Amino acid sequence: MARCAVLAALAAVALLVGAANAASVDLCGDIEVDMTLFAVDDVELTCQTFVKSGATLTIEGGTTIKAVEVAEGFDAPALVIERGAKIMAEGTADDPITFTTADSSLDPDAEDFSAEKAWGKWGGLIILGSAPLTLAEGDENSVEGLPQGKGLYGGDDPDDNSGVLKYVRVWYGGSVIGENNEINGITFAGVGAGTTVENIEVAYNLDDGIEFFGGTVNAKYLSVLFCGDDAIDTDEGYSGKIQFVFIVLGRGGHHAFEMDSILDGGDAVTPRSFPQVYNVLIVGGSSEVDAPSSDDQLSGLMRFREGTAGSFGNIVMVNVGEHGVRMNDCAEVLISQDGDDVGPNTLWFSANNIIAAVDEPFNLDDGCEGLESRSEAAPGLTMVGSVIDENVAFIDPRPVSRGSAVFNSVDELPDDEFWTPVDFRGAFDEDLWISGWSFLDDFARIPDNIPGKILDGDVEADTTWSADTVYLLTDQVFVKDGATLTIQAGTTIFAYSDNGAGKAPALVVERGGQIMAEGNADAPITFTSALNARHLPRRGTWGGLIINGNAPISTEGGSNEVEGLEGVPYGGSDPTDNSGILQYVRVWYGGEAIAADNEINGITFAGVGSGTTVDHIEVAYNLDDGVEFFGGSVNVKYLSVLFCGDDGIDTDEGYSGKIQFAVVVVGEGGHHATEMDSDGSDPDAKPRSFPQIYNALFVGGSGNPASESSDDQREGLMRLREGTGGEFGNLILANVLSVGVLQNDCGREARTHILPAGGVPNYLWFSSNNLMAGEVEVPFVTEGCEGPRLRNATLVEDLGLVLLPSGLNEDTAFFDPRPTEDGPAYKAVDDVPSDGFFESVAYKGAFGREMWLAGWSWLSEAGRIPNDVWGPVLAEDVAQDTTWRSADTYLLTRQVFVKPNVTLTIEPGTTIMAYADDGEGKAPSLIVERGAQIIAKGSSSRPITFTAAAHPSLLPARGMWGGLIVLGSAPIIGGEREVEGIDGKKYGGSNVDDNSGVLSYVRVWYGGRVVGANNEINGITFAGVGRGTEVSHIEVAFNLDDGVEFFGGTVDAKYVSVLYCGDDGIDTDEGYQGRLQFVSVLVDSRGHHGAEMDSKLGSDSGDPQPRSFPRLYNALFVGSENSDPSPVSSDDTELAMMRLREATGGEFGNIVIVNAPVGVFQEQCGSEAITQDLDAARAIPDLGSNYLWFSANNVISGARRPFSVAQGCEGLGAADTTSDTLLQAIPVIVDNASRVDPRPRPDSPLTDLWDPVPDDGFFERADYRGAFSPDVGQFWLGGWSWLFDNGRLAFELSDSQLAALERQFPELQDQLGAEGGGASSGSSAAGVAGGAVAAVVALIAVAVGVIFYVRSRRFQKKYETLMEGRPDSSIPETEMAKGVAL
């Protein structure tokens, strides 16, 4: 068939195409050569596809294969691995491999979803092997339904290897592959024990889930869900081992296990099937739907028949139905519950297996007697309801605690290496191994794999939830009258989506109960979703926090009940009632219904009194309102509400509290920022609601509420109604869509813009100084209100906020809602009431200089806002000579250009903190244009730092802002160009000596974000920069793209450090002809090349000029032995530390490469001479820079291949491949290395065989190879590198070095001796105590700019101990504490 030839050709080129390029792949026909499917591919299975003997199909983790549903009468698509072929499908929990249907209309979350709609959309996965079978005749068989000759399986090799299945999911299969032959989800037919099978799942298969036809294959971690017949079926002499099985039958399933062998005339054919199965959890079904493809309708979660033997232990059955075990056609198998004598003709079923809550656990036919005992214990599972079907809202099959019955009477496992030791019965202990990859996880039906303490009972006595315990809120928990619940700072409560009875778990504090939840900015208290993090953020994943008090409300009778909480009243007569403390409390992803059709607010204050302390609280992504006040008088400061599905803040039923410093971001799915009500039945009911709200920022959204409980779809960023009074001053209404304030259903309250001197609570004052901006069509809409109306606010086009995008929503990358001090927020500020609660401030809105959300808000943790730093905002181009001073911290909020003929001077010690986005999708960066200059001259003690403005808890991280770009007029290939993403800004020219300024001791950290569409940026870009520019001591750390890139130009650089970048460390291109010396590059496992040296390829007439000719001497490139590069913008993933290509020339001497799989990869060569004889190259007349020399003395240590050279690039092959460079401290995996010292030891071979550097006035003599001298006095990273600042540098001093420093600085030594007890002689290292260490610390810091770091969580104590001369070797070497600043 024609499609077969097409598929074979596709397979032949698949590996050549590689993972970098997505492809559309149509699987249909035969695969006869090795083929790889990549995660980026769009793969469709359109017919039966056969991997032929000798071929291997490799499937990358994360790949999805979508099977096309065929019309009735046609054979369903299936993937068949024939005997002698292999499938290498190695997924992970984060990147599973999925076989599923191409039917996009199938939605398991739809209300009308059912198993019947999901079953049988395609065929399945069939693996055929050569392991032994037991048959009545012959030693091979054929899978029914497959074409003749293509379904053969069986043989004589018990160790046959059909490949690997890891984290493989097969969903919605089981359709007919041949006449009347539905297929199993996964079929193992004669598959051998050499095959690896772990973490596989079949869900919604029309026929059996997993079937083993003979063979010996072993399997661990099996999940079978909601299939139409049996979950697991064994037959034909299967003799493998299975451990950890989770089965949910659902409404249409039949047996969980059907264990068969082979009968011949009623007698068993031997060898019998002998499966060994341990650690199983079976959740029975309801049998509402007959198993559509079963050959019987008999009961029994486990069915043994046809003479099967086997051993079955640590099994737990729940929701059993009529019978746990059914046995028939036993064929004289020995049936035993004595585990001491289990042979191939014995069926052993442990008496410890749990068959819970059933009167007849065993149904045994005549001749099958022998099973009598089982455990009747309730297993104590966390959340497995009595009816579990495909519409289950939530399930957690793990035991509730270590006190659960499953941890008792555990069966011993067979004594071989396959089995994982366990101390539990069933499939799970604390490890929820289906988390992250199961169907149940994909559709948010199970929690994340978080072990914790279950919260499912009322709090009736004083109780503390501690920060060192993780809590799982599985039900509605009530803090009863008289009880106090204390929650320690830093505690996290993970809440389930459902309690198993259709109600969302919630924490409810009843009247008379108290909650003492006192967090802080560094250790907030968090109520959040228990779902896997990949599902978040998401609204409505649990209930919320409800506090009921005794303060007055306006409802008739003085009390009410929160909807959905029957018998739990709120309201009373004590306005100062005290329900406890909420400080730094976060409630995220809630709002699910706590009863039928009753979604809940994130935090509900119901009749809560002013004796309650509330500050720094946040609700994010709640399905209903964020924070609601039903009456009461509780006051709140520092309130954050983000992206809720209805209103941000809702007041009702006579609420009369005070609120200051409130921010509400409505977002795409929200409604009103505030809905302020009084009483819907009587707008003049007493007490009238009288909220006093000052200093609030309300940011509008789409105006289309996502909540099912919103009672209107009206526009209005604020809604005032039902007779509410109140005071509203110092407000900012931003991003208003059409209507600023909607007021309706008024009572007799006075509505005014002039604050009355009295009359509380019967007036509503809205300050005319309140700011309003956006697409304001009508500032105020008033309906149903007699008398004066609200009309006045201060409308402005620009609110003067630091960064507030006009379309701010859930997807906004970054914003800063603080006002600039010359903006309207600092003008015409209203006085706040003088009552002891309100703080007098000089600004409108929720923020002044302080970013009080930093460190604890969802926005801060998500990297959407800056840290709490303040300084001059850099949002305008530098159009005249300017100095940035060290006394200020600068906020880089957009791309700032230093214009031609302008000089930007940056003082030593200055820090520039850059935002992640400019509000328009571009990363803030500093760009020095052609003809401009940057004079950034720091020092080792006062470096100049460009870094991310994000909270320190998010760092280190790549791609948090853009980078530093310097454009010059030096020559490049092509004359001039633009840096990608920076439109209209050229670089390149004819001035070799062009001067763009000075960069000295300049650090660029955490950059590389997109500066233009799909254009990530380098940390520092030198584009056409000339030799007149001075560059020394520069560093790029944690850049998402390349570290330092040179696009042409002639600029020289010394002392260059590049750390942990996402692509290449150093990149040269477009004719770069500069000089580099002392370069150190550390590449972690996800980074790429240490150096990529390019030029340009030209036509047949010659290579473009000027050819790149970097001269690089004294460089150290350190990789990681576990290198797995994943660069965001690279064109290759070659595992090489140096990549030389595109006809680059250059000189490369004194290079050291360590921890790299490949040392040098060279390709795409031109006409350049490639040599390892420098003298010979220089002697060739007119050769100029048209050669590439790589010294044979360069070190390539530990590489599997020193060189990988493409055809046409021959010439390199010699290097020093010493196995040990004797560097002081370089781990083989540098990722997050805690201790780094890249200097060679005194006895290192790097101090020999070094190449002389060119004698041209730039290069410094270096009598060593690599970037560093053994002498600590020349350790140029000290004092300013990221490694230094973060305590990662470690080194030792010899006696002679210590003595030399003491002689050099006697006056400092005397001073230290007087203050610290004197310095002792001898060797100094991490752990030397007393005055000697203090002296060494300070001496090194002053003399060579290197501080000795003490690694301790309790640095202050350690330092005091050192200074007092008392050694303390007990301080653990864990967290870094920065060194002494003297």
Provide a descriptive summary of the structure in words.
By secondary structure, the protein is mainly β. Helix content is 6%, strand content 32%. The protein contains ten helices and 96 strands. The chain has a 25-stranded parallel β-sheet that branches. Strand 13 (176-178) and strand 14 (181-182) form a beta hairpin. The longest helix is centred in the first third of the chain and has 16 residues, at 2-17. It starts with a helix and ends in a 19-residue tail after the last helix.
Query: Approximately what portion of the residues adopt beta-strand conformation?
Result: 25-35%
- By DSSP, the count of extended strands is 96
- Our count of helices gives 10
**Major beta sheet summary:** 25 strands, parallel
What would a concise description of this structure say?
By secondary structure, the protein is mainly β. It is built from ten helices and 96 strands. Residues 1-20 and 1307-1382 have low confidence and may be disordered.
